[in-house]
Amino acid sequence: MDSRTKLAICAVVVSVAGILIYLTRTPSAEERASDRSSGASGSTIASITPPIASAPASSSTEAEASTIDGDDGGTRLLLRAGWGSGKGELGRERPQEGNPEGPMSFAIADGDLFVLDQVNSRLARYDRDGKLIRTFDAPSTAQDVVVAKDGTIAMVDRLVGKSVTLTDANGRKVGELSLSSKIDEPGLVTALVIDGKNVYAEKEHGALVLLGSTDGTPAEEGTQLIGRPSKDGTLLLTAGFSSAREGRAYLNAVDRKTDALRFARAIQFPHPSRSIVLLDTDAKGTIYLGVVAGSPGDAHVACLDPGDGHVIGRVVLPVSHTPEESFRDITVANDGTIVFALRTEDSVEYRAARCP
C-alpha cells in the first residue's frame, strides 16, 4: 500500500469519526433553548388506552405558537368581575383551614357566559358584552357546569351531594342524576359531558359513564364511551402524556360510526409539561388540546385538524397564579373561540382568544 492510499484511507476514517461525533454530541444550551421555543404545547387527557408508539409526531414546523400576554396582546376581554357577593360580583373564599375557592367552572352557550359562582350559591349568566343577565340558585358544593344544546343546565357536585343538578334555561330545577349509583367513587369524576340529551360523567380522565338524560331520567344500563365526544358527533377522543417530563403527548381519535381508529398523533410540547387543562372541540370538529408547561407556567393550546390530527395552529395563554382552587379554567365555544379565566387579587377576568 503506497503512501497516497494510506493518506486517503486516513482521510475517510477522520471524516466518518467527525460525523459520528457531531451526531452523538450533547446539544449546546443555545440549541436546546431553540428547540424549546419552537415546540408548542398540546393538551392531554389521560386515556384508558395506552399511547400508540407508531403515531407520527407533529413537527413544530406545522404551526408556529402565538404567545398572548397582556390586555391587548391578542385576547378580547369578555368580563371583569370584582370579588364579592354583590350584583355582578363573583365570590372568593380564603378560609384559615381548607382550600381557597373562586368560581369553580364556567360554560359558553349561544354567546352567553355562565359562571359557576358556588361561593355565593349561584350561577351567574352574562351576555356577550359582559352584562349580567340574571343569576340562578346553585349548590354551594357544585364544581362543574355544562349547558346542553336544548338549554338545560347541569351542575355536578362530586363530593357532598354526589349528584348532578339539572335546571332549565331559566334556572328552574327539572331533575337530579345520582353519581354514586353509577360510579363507585364520585370524587374521581374529572368532567361532566353532555352529548345530545345524554349526560355523562368522566372517570379519572378516561371512560365516560352515562348517568341519564337532560330531563332527569336515570340511565338503566351501564353505558360507557371510551373517550370524549366531539361536538360534531363524529369522534371519541382520548389523550395522555407518554412523557410529561419530555413534553411528549399523544391523541387518539376513534370514528363513532365505525368504531375504528381514525388517527393517532404523537405531539411534542414544551417540557416539562405539568398538568392537563383542555381537551375540547368546536362545532366543526376542530380539536383543541392544552397543557400547562414551563415555570411559573402558561397554558399551551394546540389546535388540530379532525381529519388526520395534524396541528393547524397554536396559542399560548396566561394562567392564574393565585391560590384559589378551580375545576375548569378554559373551554372552547362552538365557533372555535377559546375562553379562559384569569384570577388576580382584585378580580377575575374571562378572556377570549383564537388559534392563529
Major sheet attributes: 5 strands, mixed
Instruction: Give the mean pLDDT.
Output: 83
Second CATH tier, the architecture: 6 Propeller
Low-confidence stretches: 2-72
- Number of spatially distinct domains: 1
Can you say what the CATH homologous superfamily is? TolB, C-terminal domain
Number of helices: 2
Can you describe what's shown?
This protein has about 350 residues and is mainly beta. The protein has a single domain (about 40-355), classed as TolB, C-terminal domain (Neuraminidase, 6 Propeller). Helices cover about 10% and strands about 40% of the residues. The protein has 2 helices and 26 strands. The chain has helices at about 5-25, 30-40; strands at about 55-60, 65, 75-80, 105-110, 110-115, 120-125, 130-135, 145, 155, 165, 175-180, 190-195, 200-205, 210-215, 225, 230, 235-245, 250-255, 260-270, 275-280, 285-295, 300-305, 310-320, 330, 340-345, 345-355. It has a 5-stranded mixed sheet with strand order 1-19-18-17-16, with no helix packed on it. A 5-stranded mixed sheet has the order 2-23-22-21-20, with no helix packed on it. It has a 4-stranded antiparallel sheet with strand order 3-26-25-24, with no helix packed on it. The model is unreliable at about 1-70 (pLDDT under 50).
SSE topology sketch:
Elements: H1 3-24, H2 29-38, E1 57-58, E2 65-67, E3 76-82, E4 105-109, E5 112-117, E6 122-126, E7 132-137, E8 144-147, E9 153-157, E10 163-167, E11 173-178, E12 189-195, E13 198-203, E14 208-213, E15 224-225, E16 228-229, E17 235-243, E18 248-255, E19 261-268, E20 273-281, E21 287-293, E22 298-304, E23 311-318, E24 330-332, E25 338-343, E26 347-353
Parallel strand pairs: 1-19, 2-23
Antiparallel strand pairs: 3-26, 4-5, 5-6, 6-7, 8-9, 9-10, 10-11, 12-13, 13-14, 14-15, 16-17, 17-18, 18-19, 20-21, 21-22, 22-23, 24-25, 25-26
